[in-house]
């Protein structure tokens, strides 16, 4: 796998299980990258949906992708505190075009007090039927939801108190 360099701006592409492009984030600055982890930062980034609609993110965010876990985490720095949006999805892959992963519908939203909510369970069930998710994928996703919830409760990895602050400070050095 090719590894992007810190400071490099990359595109992020999420796909659905059937191979269709789901969503594209235009520019994310790589803060750290190796074969297992990619940490990036962005602010007011153009996002394009599969139907062509576009929108711009509202706040700075630090993104955490892992090559062994079936989720990614976005820490959004808002005036009301730090919020996280976690996507259940395949481990990431990176090629010269973009960072890519398959979005498996389920999401977890984490609030500043570290309470959290599992979202989009009906969408997951619907797509599981429509796209024929194999049993092995369903088992992996259910298992990864549990791992992700434990990480949140334990303040592990991107949920540790200093993680977002540390990487946001690094992100700011690339904005000058």
Automatic annotation (TrEMBL):
One Pfam family, short name: DUF402
Residues annotated for Mg(2+) 2 binding in this entry: 105, 107, 120, 123
InterPro entries (alphabetical): DUF402, FomD-like_sf, Ntdp-like, SA1684
Record-annotated active site: 23
Keywords, sorted A to Z: Hydrolase, Magnesium, Metal-binding
Sequence ranges assigned to domain DUF402 in this UniProt record: 18-156
Named cofactor requirement(s): Mg(2+)
Family: Belongs to the Ntdp family.
Protein name per its UniProtKB record: Nucleoside triphosphate/diphosphate phosphatase
Native source organism of the sequence: Salinibacillus kushneri
Lineage: Bacteria, Bacillati, Bacillota, Bacilli, Bacillales
């Amino acid at each position: 796998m090719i590894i992007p360099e810190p400071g490099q701006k990359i595109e992020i592409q999420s796909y659905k299980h059937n191979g269709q492009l789901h969503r594209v984030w235009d520019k994310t600055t790589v803060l750290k990258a190796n074969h297992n982890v990619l940490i990036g930062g962005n602010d007011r980034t153009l996002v394009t949906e599969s139907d062509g609609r576009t929108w711009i993110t509202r706040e700075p965010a630090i993104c955490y992708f892992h090559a062994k876990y079936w989720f990614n985490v976005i820490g959004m720095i808002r005036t009301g505190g730090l919020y996280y949006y976690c996507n259940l999805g395949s481990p990431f892959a990176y090629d010269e075009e973009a960072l890519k992963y398959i979005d498996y519908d389920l999401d977890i939203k984490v609030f500043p007090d570290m309470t959290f909510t599992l979202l989009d369970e009906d969408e997951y069930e619907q797509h599981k039927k429509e796209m024929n998710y194999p049993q092995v994928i369903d088992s992996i996703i259910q298992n990864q939801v549990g791992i992700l919830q434990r990480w949140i409760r334990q303040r592990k990895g991107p949920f540790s108190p200093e993680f977002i602050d540390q990487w946001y400070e690094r992100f700011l050095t690339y904005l000058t």
